[in-house]
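Help needed: design a sequence for this.
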């Protein structure tokens, strides 16, 4: 989902709109589409993060998981990933998730996503 109305503070067009800042409260997870990828944004310990939306263990949508502090737990087999860097904190997953730069600006959450990259 791409959002271009309003005053996008990010001028190089490398950021996609994820959601409004007020939608994303502590511990919330919101899914957004970026090209062929599914990305989840979350707020952990006050900061916003963006991470791959599909678990690396099997195909499970992480938006249905739980974010507790910086630990994102998969809803299927309960692997735990650090939302800050994608690393695996607890199995059964053993492959980290890709993370993306997320920023808050102009009342919205934006994710840096290289199209076609
Ligand atoms: S699908 Fe996520 S831990 Fe198995």
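Sure. Designed sequence:
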């Amino acid at each position: 989902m791409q959002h271009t109305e309003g005053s996008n503070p990010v001028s190089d067009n490398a950021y996609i709109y994820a959601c409004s800042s007020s939608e994303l409260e502590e511990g919330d997870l919101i899914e957004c589409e970026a090209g062929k990828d599914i990305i989840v944004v979350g707020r952990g310990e006050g900061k916003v993060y963006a991470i791959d939306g599909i678990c690396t263990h099997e195909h499970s949508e992480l938006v249905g998981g739980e974010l507790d502090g910086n630990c994102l737990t998969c809803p299927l087999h309960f692997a735990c990933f650090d939302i800050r860097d994608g690393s695996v904190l607890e199995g059964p997953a053993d492959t980290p998730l890709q993370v993306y730069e997320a920023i808050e600006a102009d009342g919205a959450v934006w994710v840096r996503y290289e199209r076609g990259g």
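The two ends are 17 Å apart (CA to CA).
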